[in-house]
Amino acid sequence: MGEVLHVGALVTTAAGACCVAADRPAARVRELLIAALMLLAMGDIVLGGGRVPAVFWAAALLVAALVAVAPGRARREGARRMRAFDALGAVLMASLLLAAHVPASAGSSHHGTGAMPLVVLTIVGAGAYAVGGAVLFATAHRDGPLVSRLPPLAMGASAVLMAAPLVVG
């Protein structure tokens, strides 16, 4: 069941990345960087069997999130919101990767708590992120093409699909 959910997350991530690439890619380099990195990380985990350690992907995603919110030429308020949303997505993806690859049982670390707090925060974060993606989809660029509005919805769906195995498993 988890594999099916992860493949679904990979498909929605790919759809979001394609939309970012199709929608004026020169103006959205930072967003394209995050989308490509997320797609590579998920592809490695889902299709490649995790050849690259999850902690590496998490670190790379956190660096990409910092790059996304670094000061730059975001002329429109909507562009700033999308950069912030993409940066939060990268942080959430890093958390999802780590939560899926560490033992969650009590007593699994020397502090005795395991990864359960990370798992719970990640599940709550994925739900909130999905709601935020739906709101951005409904409100951002209302008169613009669908390709401009679809990435937040696809990213939110991907986060939920990635978090679902944490709930089920």
Secondary structure layout:
Blueprint: H1 2-22, H2 29-46, H3 54-69, H4 77-100, H5 116-139, H6 146-168
What is the tally of beta strands?
0
Encode the helix/strand succession as letters: HHHHHH
**Coarse shape:** globular
Helix content: over 70%
Number of helices: 6
Whole-number average pLDDT?
81
Cα end-to-end separation: 9 Å
Q: Give a quick account of the main beta sheet: strands, pairing sense, barrel closure.
A: none
The low-pLDDT segments are: none
Class by SSE composition: mainly alpha
What's the alpha carbon Rg, rounded to whole Å? 16 Å
Domain tally: 1
Mind explaining what this structure looks like?
- The chain contains 6 helices and no strands.
- The protein has 169 residues and is mostly helical.
- The chain has one domain (2-168).
- Helix 1 (2-22) packs antiparallel against helix 2 and helix 2 (29-46) runs antiparallel to helix 3 (54-69).
- It is globular, with a radius of gyration of 16 Å.
- It starts with a helix and ends with a helix.
- The model has no long low-confidence stretch (mean pLDDT 81).
